[in-house]
TrEMBL record:
Residues 33-114 form the PilZ domain. InterPro entries: PilZ_domain. It comes from Paenibacillus typhae. It comes from the Bacteria. One of its GO terms (molecular function) is cyclic-di-GMP binding. This is PilZ domain-containing protein.
Length: 124
């Protein structure tokens, strides 16, 4: 018998991708440093997310830091993370897996927003 008390999915898949913005911190060198680049959020969990964008990071796994900006429900969210993997997705598009580096307060905020977002999606 399963004693798991998990009441949420491991990963929330966005059936309609959510607009996001990716920012490579200004102190970094390389493509997009200090600028916001548009993208779409494809899925999201407490520990990370998958995004698609035109930004070609030419990254070394784990070394590329990003700040992701998006809005799920009520507030604009901004979280730091690091690129875990990436590949070309069609012409001029790239898909990345980002591990979020959240403190306790940010994780609580993300959970609240995910709950609100989920409730509005099921109400439709």
């Amino acid at each position: 018998m399963d004693d798991s008390s998990r009441k949420e999915p491991f990963r929330y898949v966005m059936n309609q991708p959510i607009q996001c913005w990716l920012e490579v911190p200004a102190g970094n060198t390389g493509p997009g440093a200090g600028k916001l680049t548009e993208g779409v959020l494809l899925d999201l969990s407490r520990s990370g997310c998958k995004v698609r964008t035109s930004l070609n990071l030419r990254f070394t796994s784990g070394d590329t830091k990003l700040i992701i900006h998006f809005r799920l429900a009520e507030v604009n969210l901004q979280f730091e993370g690091s690129v875990r993997w990436g590949w070309m997705f069609g012409i001029g598009q790239f898909q990345y897996g980002i591990r979020l580096e959240l403190n306790e307060q940010e994780e609580e905020q993300l959970v609240r927003e995910l709950e609100l977002w989920t409730n509005t999606r099921t109400a439709l």
